[in-house]
Specification:
Blueprint (H helix, E strand, L loop, with lengths): L1 H79 L10 E5 L8 E15 L2 E12 L5 E9 L7
Antiparallel strand pairs: 1-2, 2-3, 3-4
C-alpha cells in the first residue's frame, strides 16, 4: 500500500509540473504573438513612411521639371521676340502628354524682368516657379538670360 501511495504522489506531482509548464507555454506563446505583432506593425509603419518619402521626392522632381519647362518656354519666346514679357500672373500647365487633360505634371508661373547689360549683351532675369500636379511642392528657378537678335543665330 505504501508503494501505491508513492506511485500516486509521483503521478500527482508530475501532473502539477505539467500544469505549471502548460501555463508557462500559454504565457510564452501570447508574449511571442504580441512581439511578432509589434514587429509586423513596425514594418508596416516603416514601409508607409518610405512610400510617403518616395511620393514627396517624385512630387519635388515634377515641380522642378515644371519650373524648368517654364524657363525653357520663356527662353523660346525671348528668342522669337526679345521684347516679349509674360502678362502679370502668367500661369501655364505642363502635361506629360500634350492635349490630354489627365496627364497634368504641374503648373508654372513666369516673371521676366530687365537685367543689367552683361558683357555687352542685353539680358533679363527669368523667374519660373513650378508646382507639382496637386500644387503641394513648389520649386523656383531664377536664371539670367542673354538676349540676342534672332539674326545672330
Amino acid at each position: 500500500m505504501e508503494h501505491r501511495r508513492k506511485y500516486i504522489r509521483a503521478i500527482n506531482s508530475s501532473s502539477a509540473i505539467r500544469r505549471r509548464k502548460g501555463g508557462f507555454t500559454l504565457l510564452a506563446s501570447v508574449v511571442l504573438t504580441l512581439f511578432i505583432g509589434i514587429l509586423i506593425g513596425a514594418a508596416f509603419l516603416s514601409m508607409n513612411m518610405q512610400l510617403k518619402e518616395s511620393d514627396d521626392r517624385i512630387d519635388a522632381h515634377d515641380a522642378f521639371y515644371t519650373a524648368e519647362a517654364g524657363l525653357e518656354y520663356a527662353v523660346f519666346m525671348l528668342r522669337q521676340q526679345s521684347s516679349w514679357r509674360p502678362a502679370p500672373g502668367f500661369t501655364d500647365e505642363l502635361r506629360s502628354v500634350p492635349a490630354d487633360s489627365t496627364t497634368l505634371m504641374g503648373t508654372y508661373t513666369l516673371q521676366v524682368e530687365d537685367a543689367p547689360v552683361y558683357q555687352g549683351w542685353p539680358s533679363v532675369w527669368v523667374r519660373s516657379s513650378g508646382t507639382d500636379r496637386v500644387s503641394r511642392v513648389p520649386r523656383t528657378i531664377v536664371a539670367r538670360v542673354i538676349i540676342q537678335s534672332p539674326t545672330n543665330y
